[in-house]
Amino acid sequence: MEFLVIQSLNGLASASSLFLVASGLSIIFGVTRIVNFAHGSFYMLGAYIAVTIIAAIGGQDALGFWTGILLAALIVALIGALVEVVILRRIYAAPELFQLLATFGVVLMIQDITLAIWGPEDKLGPRAPGFRSFVMIMGSRFPSYELFLIVVGPVVLLALWLLFNRTRWGTLVRAATLDREMVGALGVNQRLLFTSVFMFGSFLAGLGGALQLPREAVTLHMDLAMITEVFVVVVVGGLGSITGAYLAAVLIGLVHAFGIVLFPKSTLVLAFLVMAIVLVVKPYGLLGRKPSGHAARGQAIPEPLLSPADRPTKLLGAAVLAVLILLPPFLGDYGVTFMTELVIFALFAASLHFVMGPGGMHSFGHAAYFGLGAYGAALAVQWLAAPMAVGLLISPLAAGLAGLLFGWFCVRLSGVYLAMLTLAFAQIAWATAFQWVEITGGDNGILGVWPSEWAKPKLVYFYLALALAGAGIMALRHLIFSPFGFALRASRDALLRAEATGLNVQQLQWAGFTIAAVLAGLAGGLFAFFKGSVFPTYLSIPKSVDALLMVLLGGVQTVSGPIAGAFVFAGLEEQLVRITAYWRFVLGLIIVLLVMLFPKGLAGSVLAWRERQSGDRS
Amino acid sequence: MSVVLEVSGLSKSFGGVQAVDGVSFAVSAGELLALIGPNGAGKTTCFNMLNGQLKPDSGEVALAGRRITGLPPRVVARSGVGRTFQITATYGSMSVRENVQTALIAGHHGEWSLMGKATDKHQAEADALLDLVGMRDQAARACGVLAYGDLKRVELAVALANEPRLLLMDEPTAGMAPNERIALMDLAAEIAKSRSIAVLFTEHDMDVVFQHADRVIVLDRGKLIAEGTAPEVRANPQVQAVYLGTGTTYGAAG
Ligand SMILES: Nc1ncnc2c1ncn2[C@@H]1O[C@H](COP(=O)(O)OP(=O)(O)O)[C@@H](O)[C@H]1O
Ligand SMILES: [Mg+2]
Q: How far apart are the CA of A617 and the centre of ligand 1, in A?
């Protein structure tokens, strides 16, 4: 009984910050239709800035402390406004995936800025004056600050309700959430409204971060850890519903509080199970509604005609292949290694392209399948002493099974909901690799995953990778133009039409999702033997974003685009890491600029340009 | 003539709005039945319940005597129902011929085939359908660049691809020039007669209705208020009240 009460209180306390950040994300999404990936970064900034301000104004007394917390949240609000005015305002019309990607660029930039200002060490904040004592609850000592936090959640919920129902600004925000055009017609300054909404959401995130100070250390990992949980909360609660966000935050908070005691190794897996159960019963969350109209379809940009490669493209492809086959013997080890990585990335990118392009499913967690493929091979080598051939067989199998499981849930959603869900699944896979130390070695990974004797020479391994990746890419290309590929594309182009001709859209998409996972898994297996080791980073968000960048650089709308994108990206990253320690910042900046300048991807823009040149192809 | 579609007591409400209220009617093979009524009368909602896109609150839908109420659209489609949409829906990343081929692949249960090229499948059948709707010469064009009237023809070919017993056409001629409308409906009528397809269509253009419909049913605020031949319906005072009394004129588009 005592255990139940104390853990429930713990759960409620951690729900408050989660709710603050999640409600901010929800409010911003409601009005701007942007899922702000950087919301976790605002949360992190809130905590860091609060540490600095409180130290500066000497926050030992209550006044200094609470002023510091509030100031920190306000500064984060200003940073939010800056981000909105400089970046987001320019991409409101871009496809949602690009928006998500751009805000991830902001995540990368803020990570490096934070690192530059505050350094890599964790920071400890002061305890809250007036809340340093303990309260006796059923015979155990319970920190009074936790009780304070428990109260914050419902108070903020109430305050938000009053704000949205009792003030003019709140009414406008609600109106804009329902119908953006209408607000424009009312003569409201839409730009100001958007900026203020973004500021307000950022304020909530900053406040959530600052309030965490007395509870836990401030680290550079807070951003992604938080945004993952927030995505889970928002998906569970229903995007756009603030009360739903609170309910879900409490639910997830409780799951964590009990999970950490009962199954310390599997807290995220538990959160996954909760999310899975909710989604099976209510696909759009506890209080969410099925999106209709605009939100349901995203900003539909008319798809250009997808045709098999024309002669010049085919010739170019043949030339590239010839170079890939003939050149490596004349390269040194470094060159061969680089080319091997290129080839593996190309398969990884092609598999993501398959699910995003023809499949029409915007996966933000494709690294899960790459990483699970790598871990499948590594675990087989480590625990079953399997030879490379068996490992390379297990890779696509393991990833395919995960794709089958995760895909079942994902194909029930679409658009940003699907993107957030894929990301959450990837984080769960990542957390499993990270937390399950006995099996996976945790952060230390699994070492000694070497190829069989015959494939050990770098050149031989390159040709093996080229053969398998090449076969994988050719298989995907073939599928795109097969009857199955057409049916998949039909489901993407016009869902209702596809259903009305007898196609089972969900099953087709499920199959497409799984096929992409299988091939990403093969790429992961090749990568594991190539590196000789696997680490949780293989399944991490940045790895998923790598793949997204490759595809978007190349353009989703072309079949050969992702291969070109993979080549460009691998080269770019290689150089960046070498040139600067702050490569994340530069990469983030490049992402943001790319999205702002080429909303169709490089190849897409070239294609559009070519089409403009030649006019209507008839 | 055998009854193909039989609808009884069909109802659906959205929140407080009773969009369709106890509607019953039947369509026979080779018959063209027009469903008319002012904007918001519930015509599209009715269609969506017939092809399974919406689940009715109550009522039954039977296709050739078999109950299909509440079945998902793909199952309804497989049992012989083709439809066109009020807002045309075609596959934008495919050419005209590929649109029809994809529908044919679905109609032949071939969508799970991983072998071969989709563009090699059912070529002759696709061309025959395109000939039928007069789109053969534009077969290679992307659907995204077609004129609206041509898009409607492609949709008709797609809807006919799985040899339906029942064809549902929601405002097939909306957005077309008057002479185009007559031509498209002439075509639809001819196909329906020669293949004994039952056709249910909604239409705002009364000229089109009077020229092509064998029978007309009138919907107003979810309720069926009249049924009969075109002249009968035109003479019906209640129908006149709905169309004239509310200030809506014949042929008002929406
Ligand atoms: N998805 C929906 N949600 C809520 N109300 C709807 C929905 N679809 C239709 N309606 C309402 O039902 C009524 C009938 O609409 P509809 O069937 O589209 O009429 P029609 O096609 O005859 O113009 C209208 O009042 C409309 O506003
Ligand atoms: Mg309608």
A: 38
Atom of ligand 1 nearest to the CA of A292: 1
CB pairs under 8 A between A and B: 124
Give me the CATH number covering residue A436: 1.10.3470
Give the end of a domain, one of A196, A219, A242: A219
Q: Break chain B into its structural domains and give their ranges.
A: 1-71+166-254, 81-163
CA distance A355 to chain B (A): 16
Q: Band the pLDDT of A611: cuts 50, 70, 90.
A: low
Q: Which residues of chain A are within 8 Å of residue B159 when distances are taken between CB atoms?
A: 500
Q: Which of A200, A219, A238 corresponds to the end of one domain?
A: A219
pLDDT grade for A602, boundaries at 50, 70 and 90? low
- What pLDDT score does A308 carry? 77
For residues A474 and A481, what is the distance between their CA atoms, to the nearest angstrom? 11
A349 neighbors A547 (Cβ within 8 angstroms): yes
Q: How far apart are CA A186 and CA A618, in angstroms?
A: 43
Residue A271 located in a structural domain:
no
Do both A197 and A317 map to the same domain? Answer: no
The CATH code belonging to domain B81-163 is 3.40.50.300
Assigned token pair, A519: 């091939």
- Evaluate: CB of B41 within 6 angstroms of ligand 1: yes
CATH top class, domain B1-71+166-254: alpha beta
Element (H, E) at A380: helix A367-384
- In chain B, what residues touch A487 (CB-CB under 8 Å)? 102, 105-106, 111-112
**Rounded distance between C-alpha atoms, residue B19 and residue B44, angstroms:** 10
Considering its fold, how many domains does chain A have in total?
2
Give pTM, 2 decimals.
0.87
Q: What is the pLDDT of residues A428-438, one digit of tens each?
A: 899 889 888 88
d(CA A384, CA B122): 49
- Please answer whether residues B12 and B57 qualify as being in contact, where contact means their C-beta atoms are separated by less than 8 angstroms: yes
- Residue B16 touches chain A, beta carbons under 8 Å: no
SS3 A240: coil
Asked if residue A185 is part of any domain, the answer here is: yes
How confident is the model over B76-128, as pLDDT tens digits? Answer: 999 999 999 988 889 988 999 999 999 999 999 999 999 999 999 999 999 99
DSSP per-residue letters across chain B: --EEEEEEEEEEEETTEEEEEEEEEEEETT-EEEEE-STTSSHHHHHHHHTTSS--SEEEEEETTEE-TT--HHHHHHTTEEEE-SS----TTSBHHHHHHHHHHHHTT-TT--SS-GGGTTHHHHHHHHHHHT-GGGTTSBGGGS-HHHHHHHHHHHHHTT--SEEEESSTTTTS-HHHHHHHHHHHHHHHHHHT-EEEEE-S-HHHHHHH-SEEEEEETTEEEEEE-HHHHHH-HHHHIIIIITSPPTT---
B-contacting residues in A 470-509 (Cβ below 8 Å)? 478-479, 481-487, 489-490, 492-494, 496-505, 508
Do A199 and A317 have their domain in common? no
At A223-277, the pLDDT tens digits run: 988 998 898 898 899 888 899 999 999 999 998 888 888 877 777 778 777 887 8
Residue of B102 and A598 predicted with greater confidence: B102
Please tell me whether residues A213 and A316 are part of one structural domain.
no
A214 and A316 share a domain?
A: no
Residue A605 domain boundaries = 311-617
Q: How far is B57 from chain A (nearest CA, A)?
A: 19
Q: For residue B205, what pLDDT is reported?
A: 84
Q: Ligand 1: does its nearest atom lie under 6 Å from the Cβ of B238? A: no
The reply to whether B81-163 shares the fold of B1-71+166-254 is yes
A224 within domain boundaries: no
Q: Which of A116-120, A232-236, B170-174 has the highest mean pLDDT?
A: A116-120
Tokens of A440: 């996976």
Q: Is residue A69 part of a domain?
A: yes
